[in-house]
Every structure is written in C-alpha cells, then in structure tokens.
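Exercise 7b. Backbone tokens:
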C-alpha cells in the first residue's frame, strides 16, 4: 500500500491511487460502503490531473481556463461574436458572479470589448476583438489536440462508451441534486 510522499513518475503512472484509498478504508472500517469512491474518486483525481494539464496549456498563452471559456463561448456564438454578460454566464462554465472579473481581465488584455447600447446605457454587450478571435482560435487548436493526446489510452469505441456512461452519470447526479425537474 502506498502512502503520500515522494514516489517516481513511473510508479505514479502504474499505481491507482483510488485502489489504495479503498484498501485503506477497508482496513480501517470494513463495513463502510466505498463503492461510489471507485467512480467519484477516479473522477476527482482525473479532474485534478486534467486541470493541471490544461492550466499549462492556457498559461502558455497568458490566459486561464475561465478566460478561455469566456473567449470560446463568444467564438462559438458565431455572427459578430457578441453576447450579453448574462448569456455568457448561461452558456459558459463560469458563474454569473465570476463573469465581471473575467471580463475585466480579458478587456484589459484587449481580447474583448464591452459595448453599451446607445438607447439604454445600462445594457451591455461583450464582443470578441480581433485579437481575441485570433487567440481563441490558436489556443483551441492546441487545447483540443492535447485533450485528444490525453485520451490516447482509449480506443474510439471505449471513448464512445465512456461518453455515454458519463452522460448517464451526469443525469443521475442532476436527478439527485434537483429531483426529476432540473429546472427546480
């Protein structure tokens, strides 16, 4: 059984940290049902590793994951790449409370611009600048290629099966959180 400390990269790759956690729980509290840890423990560890990898990618371009999410949401919107802050919060992975801070940083970097409506100065739209369009296009190419590299251990069939299982798990968690009505 492995405990936290310095271990080689080769050892870290071969070991399954979650199996160690489950074995530790079994030794300390055998009656505890840790079956969900097989999935959620791995999802959590996977998220931490994934987040580390994507953070490295975004840092190379002077942005972070939240900034990329805002830029890519604007890019995906098409047309003139303009949305309201409310739409950005709805269509991105960033909370409405976090949008203002992200927009300030992206605007300071010249990647987005805020446009006030002439008829109602309180109404604001956010538009991707040309520099923002260029950056998000370049970063997206690198980001998605690296994500694909991270999936190299899965066959296309396994990736498709995992996609469906994660979709199903996501619906199960939504039902747990919000019941049968996710709008509730």
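Sequence design result:
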């Amino acid at each position: 059984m492995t405990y936290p400390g310095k271990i080689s990269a080769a050892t870290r790759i071969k070991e399954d940290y979650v199996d160690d956690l489950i074995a530790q729980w079994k030794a300390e509290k055998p009656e505890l049902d840790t079956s969900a840890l097989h999935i959620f423990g791995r999802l959590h560890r996977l998220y931490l590793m994934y987040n580390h990898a994507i953070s490295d990618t975004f840092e190379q371009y002077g942005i972070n994951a939240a900034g990329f999410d805002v830029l890519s949401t604007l890019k995906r919107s098409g047309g003139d790449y303009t949305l309201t802050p409310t739409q950005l919060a709805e269509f991105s992975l960033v909370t409405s409370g976090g949008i203002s801070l992200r927009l300030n940083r992206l605007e300071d970097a010249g990647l987005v611009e805020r446009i006030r409506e002439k008829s109602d100065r309180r109404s604001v739209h956010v538009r991707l600048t040309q520099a923002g369009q260029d950056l998000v296009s370049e970063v997206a190419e690198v980001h998605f290629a690296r994500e694909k590299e991270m999936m190299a251990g899965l066959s296309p069939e396994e990736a498709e099966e995992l996609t469906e299982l994660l979709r199903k798990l996501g619906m199960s968690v939504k039902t747990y959180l919000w019941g049968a009505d996710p709008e509730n």
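Instructor comment: The first strand starts at residue 82 and ends at 83. DSSP finds eight helices and three strands in the chain.
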